[in-house]
Specification:
Helices cover 29% and strands 20% of the residues. The chain is α+β, with helices and mostly antiparallel strands. The protein has three domains: 8-100, 2-Layer Sandwich (Uridine Diphospho-n-acetylenolpyruvylglucosamine Reductase, domain 3), CATH 3.30.465; 107-215, Uridine Diphospho-n-acetylenolpyruvylglucosamine Reductase, domain 3, CATH 3.30.465.10; 221-444, 3-Layer(aba) Sandwich (Vanillyl-alcohol Oxidase, Chain A, domain 3). The longest helix has 22 residues, at 405-426. The structure holds flavin-adenine dinucleotide. This is FAD-dependent oxygenase.
Length: 481
């Protein structure tokens, strides 16, 4: 197995050897430099990977050379993109080479306007802006600082999924550096294609992707942001079941439970977003049932697609895009609809354990109801993403300033307790845990689907394409590799 680099000096030795094989523009940064610290900082510091050198490729061939070198030298490697991956299995990397993909960030729209080829390290924001300027758009993650491939390789939820499906459903072909150090074009003709759409982090490094793109159909978007006090939990989620289940194709409904002292000084509030496409004001058919419940406040805005991230606090300058040394474990569970009494139980525990002076008072309980029509139009068995029949992505995000093992344990216990109630209330036997939000203690069945054929297919592909487990830090298909 891999020999870990365990000192800066050894890191330097390997960096020198790499320098000789990389292109002149490629960069190598050593620990304790400003660049290294910046390129290796992560959104969540819990169980984060440790690297001894950060290498910045500028071409596919640079990535090939790094993977080949690491294989020969038996060094662990990990692609860093938006560095918002927070699954604790990443912490199994305890030394090795970071491959920072941020310079692979081109966008080229094909002459026929039906696809675009984008760099493997591009952010959602860069793709959204580049396509918008040509009258096009595609499905990306919602958060501006998250990459396209990070979400996409695990499925990828986005604003436009009601029309077009998941981020992964847009894939047309990709260039991938595989574990054997070869660069391959993977598309529908490859047996690996199925796996790249849901479990792709396990199989290689995508240096570029050709994605479907679409003409912008609707320039107008509108949002209503409502804030409810916690005593309205039953009314709000019953109304969500009654009026928004499933969410119409042109609507998105997210809600967050969080502490906003100006709205309620003692307990978390329900921040409730109704977002509608193709209009300058959210239709009263959707808003009235919620107005009738009696929110603390209602705020309406309108703009275009590019405003959505700012409205929902996932823009480049929003808090979730900053890397400030916080631990940010999430505990996801997909559900089909809200179990209102379970919501009450979760709220009461969340309010008791994540308010006031609690170290977890910056936590957020997330409920993301995206439209699913485009997702469910794709055959369930056609991709490794396994949870197309679910409607709502839920996850407590337990945010805290890390102080050591004891607090980590408390955070995990709280997150698991809350998720346990959601899962039990869902009536689903198996926990469906979105791998991109996963905590890390779930099993491959929870991440990639409990059907035996899914597990067998993934394992067989892993044995074929990555028998040494070079790409096994993020949600590993084979545990213990
Ligand atoms: C604030 C916030 C908002 C989010 N919003 C959404 C959302 O709207 N929709 C959604 O589906 N998810 C969302 N997520 C979850 C997101 O999908 C995951 O956190 C994802 O892992 C982040 O990707 P990244 O590139 O930022 O992180 P990274 O940690 O850099 O990458 C995550 C994993 O993917 C691998 N990887 C990244 N790029 C490549 C590549 N080119 N080739 C091979 N492997 C690669 C990395 O090695 C790593 O193992 C969000 C997360 C956060 C924190």
């Amino acid at each position: 197995m891999s020999v870990f680099i365990d000192s800066a000096a050894a890191g330097g030795e390997h960096a020198n050897a790499l320098r000789d094989v990389l292109s002149p523009t490629a960069e190598i940064f050593y620990p304790n430099s400003t660049e290294f610290n910046s390129l290796s900082a992560r959104w969540s510091t819990l169980a984060q990977p440790k690297v001894n050198v950060a290498v910045v490729p500028f071409s596919d061939d640079d990535v090939v050379k790094i993977v080949q070198y690491a294989k020969k030298a038996k060094l662990p490697i990990l692609a860093y993109n938006g560095a918002h991956g927070a699954i604790t299995t990443l912490g199994r990397m305890q030394g090795g080479i970071e491959i920072y993909l941020g310079r692979l960030s081109s966008v080229v729209v094909a002459p026929d306007g039906r696809t675009a080829t984008i760099g493997g390290g591009i952010s959602s924001k860069a793709v959204i802006d580049a396509l918008w300027s040509t009258g096009k758009q595609t499905v990306t993650g919602t958060c501006e600082c998250v990459s396209v491939l990070g979400p996409g390789l695990g499925g990828g939820h986005g604003w436009l999924q009601g029309h077009y499906g998941l981020v992964a459903d847009q894939f047309v072909s990709m260039n991938v550096v595989l574990a054997d150090g070869t660069l391959q074009t993977v598309d529908t003709n490859s047996d690996l294609w199925w796996a790249m759409k849901g479990a792709g982090q396990n199989f290689g490094i995508v240096t570029s992707l050709t994605s479907k793109i679409y003409d912008i159909k609707h320039y107008d978007w509108a949002i209503e942001t409502l804030i409810f006090s916690g005593d309205k939990v039953e009314a709000v989620y019953q109304a969500a079941n009654d009026y928004l289940s499933p969410v119409p194709v042109n609507l998105i409904n997210w809600s967050y439970w969080l502490n906003i002292p100006s709205a309620d000084p003692d307990k978390p509030v329900i921040l409730f977003y109704l977002i509608q496409e193709g209009t300058t004001a959210v239709n009263s058919v959707y808003t009235k049932p919620f107005h009738d419940i009696g929110p603390i406040s209602i705020e309406a805005e309108s703009g275009d697609y590019r405003d959505l991230a700012r409205w929902t606090q996932v823009a480049l300058d929003s808090a979730p895009c900053q890397k400030t040394g916080l631990a940010n474990p999430r505990f996801p569970a997909y559900i089909k609809e809200y179990n209102v009494s379970a919501q009450r139980l979760e709220y009461d525990i969340f309010a008791a354990e994540a308010s006031g002076n609690s170290p977890f008072s910056a936590s957020i309980f997330m409920f993301e109801a995206y439209p699913v029509q485009g997702v469910q139009a794709v055959e369930s068995d056609s991709t490794a993403f396994a949870f197309r029949s679910d409607n709502i992505l839920t996850a407590p995000l337990i945010t805290y300033t890390p102080t050591g093992h004891e607090l980590d344990q408390q955070a995990a216990a709280l997150g698991k307790k809350l998720r346990g109630i959601i899962h039990e209330g869902s009536g689903s036997e198996e926990l469906h845990a979105y791998v991109n939000y996963a905590f890390g203690d779930e099993s491959p069945r929870n991440w990639y689907g409990c059907e035996q054929w899914r597990q067998d297919r993934l394992k067989a592909l892993k044995q074929k394409y990555d028998p040494e487990g070079r790409f096994s830090f993020f949600g590993p298909i084979l545990q213990g590799v």
